[in-house]
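Technical note accompanying the year-one report. For the benefit of new consortium partners, we illustrate the data format agreed upon in the data management plan: each record pairs a sequence with a structure-token string. No post-processing was applied to the example shown here.
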Amino acid sequence: MQGASYQDIAAQGGGIVSTVTATRAASIESLFAQSEKRLIALMKEGVTSIEIKSGYGLDLDTERKMLTVARQLGQNTTFMSVPHI
């Protein structure tokens, strides 16, 4: 967002390689906890729906882990409630 090139971001330790490494190293519990925090913050801002992106694991085990977390978030979170009339 500040105009840095991808090469600059990667050289500073960021970018997709950093994200893949962190995602692979994280447990289901830690992925859930950090994602739930973000989800609650979004809900407090009035967001009513989100899209969860997978693909940062780049291997089957990590993708399964990420999809498990996404499912758990969906089961434990209600974005919209309809008032009873």
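Partners are asked to follow this layout when depositing records. Residues 16 and 56 are 8 Å apart (CA to CA).
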